[in-house]
Structure formats: C-alpha cells, structure tokens
C-alpha cells in the first residue's frame, strides 16, 4: 500500500510537470517508473499510454465545445496516427528496453526543442479544386471580439505521413507525441496554431488507445501500476492547469525544458549503459 501511495504522489508530480510544460505527463511517467521505481520498460509504456488517454479526454471535450477543434481534420489524420501507433506498439515488443530508452531520450530532446520554438499562426485560404477542398479539410474558429476566422489545410499528404510517424512514436514510447502532431499540422499543413494544438489534443487519446490495445493483449498493462498512475496524472494535470493560469508561462517552460533536457540525457546514459529491463 505504501508503494502505491508513493507511486500515486509521483504520478501527481508527473502530471503537474507535464501540464506546466505542455508536453503531457507521459514524458515524465516513463522515467519515473523505469528509473525511479525499476518498473520494466514495456510495463511503464503501457501505464503511460493509459494515463495519456485519461489526461487528453477532459481537455478535448472542452476544446470541441469552444469551437477550436476541427473534428473532420482530426478524424482524417487519426487514420494515420492509429495505424502508426499499432505499428509502433508491435515494434516495441521486438526491441530491447535499452534501445527504447535511447529512442525515448532522443524524441524527448526533439520535443523540447519544438516546444520552445516560436509558433507561426497560419491562416491559409481555401484553394478551389484542391485535395483539401475535396476532403473538406477546412473550417472556422472564433477569435477575439467574436470574429469568426476561416482557414484551410495545405500539404495534406506530407502531413498525413508525418502523423504516421507521430503515431508510431506514441505506440513505441508511450507518449502523446503532441509536439510531433502539432509540427505536422502547424508547420506542414499550415493550420492556425489554436486549431492545430486543440485538434492534436483531440487525437492524442484515440492514438493512445490504439497502442494500449497491443500492450493489453501482450499482458503489459498491470492494474496495480496503471490505477495510481492514471489517477495521479489526472490530479496533477488539473493542478497544473490551474497553476498555469497564474504563472509566468515563458519562464516556467524554459525552466522545465532544462529539467526535462537533463532527464532525457540521464535516460540516454542509462540506455547506453544497459540499465533498463
């Protein structure tokens, strides 16, 4: 019981840090379980995927109600992310835990870089006769003063393949891969930043479900680990969302980016030294 309580408190911290940095609890849960509690890598990934499902669901509902999420674009791109997540989860079962640890550290460093970069705010007009028009990958979103802005996607095919890679990383590493999804929608498909971030959040839970099913089938989702992690991350994310409203966001993100960079280097070190099991 004491170990479960400690794990619960650790998961609250992971959810809090993940919420404040915008990177999600998964990037903290994996190091916490593997390095802090000695949980085997694949069991840690299974628990992390379940926590990702829980944390993304509540926020996704709110964003849909506010009118930012483009459900049509999200459901179209989920074809890519779910396919990628299944492949990533299957590949994960074939890889050595230390190899996964090294890949995790590399993706975590990339995620930190993408999170710190300036975010362009696109607003592309619809091109008549384009693939985007045929697939209806366009929409509107509310802006300040009640103004409704129109936008359309671009570069759908490259964005689709980038989404497959993001899904594969989610299934392989047990993370939401939100930064990679935003990279695909924001930089490649030229969607407005608010639309890409909220639509990414809408997709994260579905992507995680696809990967989690593979881990469940292999018996790598253990309730005694998953339950305190899920509840703790949800509680931590809620506290983080409230803290974020009264905090200086830029300074927080910079500080935690440094912390997560150190954490990723430590993960890389342990992977190279064959410390994971």
UniProtKB/TrEMBL annotation:
Q: Which organism is it from?
A: Chryseobacterium defluvii
Residues crossing the lipid bilayer are 7-37, 43-64, 76-94, 100-116, 159-180, 200-216, 221-240, 252-269
Q: Does the keyword Signal apply?
A: no
UniProt family annotation: Belongs to the 4-toluene sulfonate uptake permease (TSUP) (TC 2.A.102) family.
- Keyword Cell membrane carried by entry: yes
The domain of life for this entry's organism is Bacteria
Question: What topology in the membrane does the UniProt record assign?
Answer: Multi-pass membrane protein
Task: Please state what the protein is called.
Answer: Probable membrane transporter protein
Compartments reported by the entry: Cell membrane
